[in-house]
Every structure is written in C-alpha cells, then in structure tokens.
Automatic annotation (TrEMBL), chain A:
It holds the Pfam family PTS-HPr. Keywords: Sugar transport, Transferase, Transport. PROSITE patterns: PTS_EIIA_TYPE_4 (PS51096), PTS_HPR_DOM (PS51350), PTS_HPR_HIS (PS00369). General (non sugar-specific) component of the phosphoenolpyruvate-dependent sugar phosphotransferase system (sugar PTS). This major carbohydrate active-transport system catalyzes the phosphorylation of incoming sugar substrates concomitantly with their translocation across the cell membrane. The phosphoryl group from phosphoenolpyruvate (PEP) is transferred to the phosphoryl carrier protein HPr by enzyme I. Phospho-HPr then transfers it to the PTS EIIA domain. Residues 1-132 form the PTS EIIA type-4 domain. This is Phosphocarrier protein HPr.
From TrEMBL, chain B:
This is Dihydroxyacetone kinase subunit L. PROSITE patterns: DHAL (PS51480). Keywords: Kinase, Transferase. Residues 8-208 form the DhaL domain. Pfam families: Dak2. The keyword Transferase applies. It comes from Pseudarthrobacter polychromogenes. GO terms for molecular function: kinase activity. The keyword Transferase applies.
Amino acid sequence: MIGIVLVSHSEALANAAMDLALQMVHGARPPIRIAAGAAGGFGTDATAIASAIDDLAKTDGVLVITDLGSAILSSSLALEIRSSTHQVVISDGPFVEATTAAVVGAAAGGSLADIAADASNALAAKKSQDATGQAASSAEHTDPGSPVVSAEERLINPMGLHTRPASLLVQMAGEFSSDIELTNTSSGRGPVNASSVIGLLSLGACKNDRIRIEASGPDAPQAVNAVKELVLQGFGELS
Amino acid sequence: MSDSLTMDAIQQWLHRFALEITTQADWLTELDSAIGDADHGTNMVRGTGAVVAKLNGGATGTVQELLKAVGMTLVSSVGGASGSLYGTFFLEMGRNSPSGEQLNASELEKALRAGVDGVVARGHAAVGDKTMVDALEPAVTALYQSLANGLRLHDSVAAAAAAATTGRDSTEPLVARKGRASYLGERSAGHIDPGAASSAILVAALAATVGEGTAQ
C-alpha cells in the first residue's frame, strides 16, 4: 500500500481533510502522515515534510498532497533533504479532492502512478458539474479490440453515486483484473474508469439515473455482475 | 587575488544580517501586510535568530559545512516559502563552495550565483515576477561584472548591494506573478515586495561586512 503525506499551512485543515477522506475507507487504512504548520503558526516546513516522507519509507511509494503555493515549494526541497530513497510524487491536485482520491485509491491497493494521476485529475468531478449542469464528457473510451461485457441498471439509492458508493465501487473494482467502466446514460457523461473515485463522481449520477457497466478482461462477467449487485442493493444505503 | 571571505567574515555577515533584519522587522512586516500574510518580518527575525544561536553554539569546520548548517536552520525555523527559499540559497551556496575555510572573490561569486540559481529553480520565478529574485539576480550580475572589470572585492560587493537596492525598488510598481501575493493580482502593484526587501538587506549586510574590513 502506498503512503500519503498531507502538507498544509494549517494542522487543523490537514487533520480535517484526512478525517473527511478516511470516512470513505472501511477496511485497512493507508498510512498517512501530516506535515502542517511551521514554527508554531501557519506555514510549511521542508524538514517536517522530509521526516514525514522518511517515516513512510516502508510503503510502496508516497504521494505528497499540498495546499497553497509554498507547500509545493517546501515539498520539493524536502525531496532533496530527506534521507530515504523510495519513490515520492508531489501531487498537483486540489487538497481536499486529491486527499479523498488518494486515500480511497491507496486503501484499494492502487499503484502510486495510478493514484497520482487520479489525484491530479481530482478537479474533474467539480468541473463536470458547472452551474448549468452541463456535462463535460469524457474522451476516454474502452479499447475496441477487447470483448466487452455490459449491463445497464438504474440507481435506486437516494443520494445517487456520491463519494461513499463511489469509494465502495473503487474498492470492488480493485478485486477484479478486468477493466471496468461506467457511463451515466441518462446524462451522457462518461465512460469513466471504475478504479477512479474522482472519475465516478464526475458522472454526477443521481437517483434514477441509468448507469451502463462495461468490463473487458478475463473476469469481465463476474466484474459486471458484482457492480450490478452493488447498484441493485443501493450500495447498502437502503433502509 | 588576495581578496577573500574568511569563516569569521561569513559569520560576521550572518550576524549583521540578523541584526539588520531585527532592526527592520516592522518595515518588512508592514510590506508583507500590504500584499501578503503580514509575517515576513517576524519569520525572518525568528530564522536569523536561530542562525545566530547556531553560530554561537559552536563554529562549524568548513565554509561548506557552515553554509549548509545555516541553510538547514533557516528551512526549519523561518517557515513557509521564505524558509525554503533562503534555505535553498544557503544550501546551494554551500554545495558550490570549495571545501576550505575561506572563499576568494571568484569562489564567493560562484557560490552566490549558485545560491540565486537555486532560488530561481525552486520558486520558478524570474526577474519581474515581484520576488526575492528581483533583488538577488541583479546583485550577482553586478558582482560578476565588477570582478570581471578588475574591481576589488569590497567595491564589487558594494556594487552588488546597490544593484540589490535598485532591484528591490523596481518591485514596487510590479504586479506579483508568484507566491501568495499573486492572488491579489493588480492590487499587488504599488508595494515593494517584502522578499526583495529582505534579500537587499542580505546583500547590504555582505557589503558592510566586507567594507568594514573583516574580510582580508
């Protein structure tokens, strides 16, 4: 599992972002370190960031997530002064959204490269829901060469595909080797990869929206069935 | 080339820098309250105070080691962008110094150039972005040109300090393109950049130290 370092000017902000993200995790929690504040006030401290990174030397790589400008600057200096040598990526994603994407992705066992990409694109979910409600449709499409198994279901849980169900989906998608993609056929948004919580959120799928589930790979039928079941059970949110 | 900066002179420079920062702390904070978070004076006083404490705690062996220790102290005590940038400045200076116990004029010029290049690389700032670089870049250029023209070290460093002051003042009409002040956009114009101001103090402290003859 990868580790995550949250770099913020404010310890309270970092703790709150971490707690918010951890609400989506129901199994083993990814290792998270906070490097926040400097000299007892607001600020960032490259030496504190370096020791947070060193502290996670036994993980499968570390994603550093930053808030305002100097957090990135201090993090890049931290990479120079740290004593460990494992792989570290500094994310350019927005703090809260990237933290959520990274925590969920790490808990699902994602690789550093995948999670870093997901965190970097974490604004997509917000951008796709602009004031007019117009969709920014995704350009990603399934490889036409691989056989695709698909199903279409209606969302029945009251809140639609919000963060908690999205993170359940990501964790489930991690159990299959097939590529799973979801499209909101009611709004035309997608397809998006089911291994990305941010991608799933960008579908903006509400109750009664129809979701097409497509999978390609060796266990595609099982993967589609599993996702279908999850949708049919309302992600466990039906009272 | 007998002009050189001894370990003593380097420490003298840092003591003077700390003293000047303390004297001008209110002004630095005032500048920062116009376009930033009003803590540059306080942060720099804390950082340079930590450097002085470090120096008083016992001198380190070589120029390299001294400058590295100063850099690390600033990184962990100033906080925020200034800590990382001033830290980078001294770390890079140290990394690009010879391993002896003094810097001759050309070694000093090379080390300062490396320090400024480090700040530029770390902050991705260029001249005109309303940052420390606006004071530091012309200072090292002036130092290089003066030495190349055959001037003595104390005259060359004085030219560098004058260039840093001019550079500092040039930030006043600029619109910030880097750092927290950039969020203010046009409203950042009309104020001297606090980082450029503290950088000019750093170069002035060097000129005063060399001019006083602590350097040989």
